[in-house]
């Protein structure tokens, strides 16, 4: 790796393997995450996307290999130090329904607080900015149980933003959202990159959304990386058939200029 490439990559994953008991989930996987870009992990169900994302946030311990965060071994950092660098929103997060939006967002400030300084003006400012950036400021006193799916998802993202991390990991943030709220959520993610220079690692099932919003795609299959690259290079009819087992027609989105995937039928190998 050249010195320039090392500077551009905020996370380097080297020969990573990870097991669930006797089941090997990730196999000698190596990947570099570029700084200030949206990297989308994509692939069929069970390919290891969410496991890899959680490993980046050190929720899973690898059986082999390591992850470097700006040349520091991830496992050399204390939990609070790591939480100040990487924020994670998992699939279907939960919190008490009677908690308010503001109380949820406040949880994002935990990594920055100490016994001598449990709360500060900086914490209050970070919370206000996070709620303003996600458009939930007017919902601050609403109970979580009273929110729509889109509102609730924005509140969770606001909590992650309040951590003020340079790296944000989101696991299927548009899952269970309707089309309008999917676009609302991903436009917010895009603004985080464009306006604030955040590095985003995103798990998405929808290949068209991945191609539209991702700067870089990572295709996984069976716990291994099949290919990485720009959407225009990766989203081809042959590659989609290989990774997802579906025959498709690829056209260029006339509005955004990104690849657009039109499913036709299961690939022959999937029908066998």
TrEMBL record:
Entry GO CC: plasma membrane
Pfam families: ABC_tran (PF00005)
InterPro entries per record: AAA+_ATPase (IPR003593), ABC_transporter-like_ATP-bd (IPR003439), ABC_transporter-like_CS (IPR017871), P-loop_NTPase (IPR027417), Siderophore_ABC-ATPase (IPR051535)
Swiss-Prot/TrEMBL keywords: ATP-binding, Cell membrane, Ion transport, Iron, Iron transport, Membrane, Nucleotide-binding, Transport
Membrane topology term: Peripheral membrane protein
GO molecular function: ATP binding; ATP hydrolysis activity
Domain ABC transporter stretches: 11-247
Subcellular location: Cell membrane
Any Gene Ontology biological process: iron ion transport
Family: Belongs to the ABC transporter superfamily.
Protein name: ABC transporter ATP-binding protein
Protein source organism: Rhizobium lentis
Species lineage: Bacteria, Pseudomonadati, Pseudomonadota, Alphaproteobacteria, Hyphomicrobiales
